Amino acid sequence: MTETLWLLAGAYVALGVLVLALNIRSGWPLWVRLACIVAVSALYFVTWQSLQGLRGWPTGQALPHHFILNASTVTEPDESDGDPGRIYLWVTPVIDDDPIGTPRAFALPYERRLHTQVQRARDEMRNGQLQLGTATPDVEGQRAADTNYFAPETQQIQLEDLPEPSLPEK
User: What stretches in the chain show pLDDT beneath 50?
Assistant: First the structure.
């Protein structure tokens, strides 16, 4: 990923040099040339901020409806420096009772109830019991049309022991 960032930065530098070269010899009005330089320069910062989400940081998207909890960590709120706290979950989506895809990290706002659930799930995982999670949007106080790609501020998350597989009869 770091190599990709360097290549992208190099491409933007080349674009900036091209815009500067064209502006030196062009007959465009001064305001158009300045606007081109400012626009290309602004693209550097917009692109940099956009790519930060691709570098492996936890996402703010909604959790999958069913998932297996792989790991978790909790950062409790700290009123001395104004940190609201976060709950980080590393989960694998489950579709039709089969884990699918690769694990993904999610960042959730801190809630005492969820902290307690995550701590219990972590203890169960240390004892070898896999944890199955279910996430549903908390529609209380939220219109149905508000469901979107990003995580709602409140989600109802349930963590429970993964049930034993049912084997077919012989």
Answer: 141-150
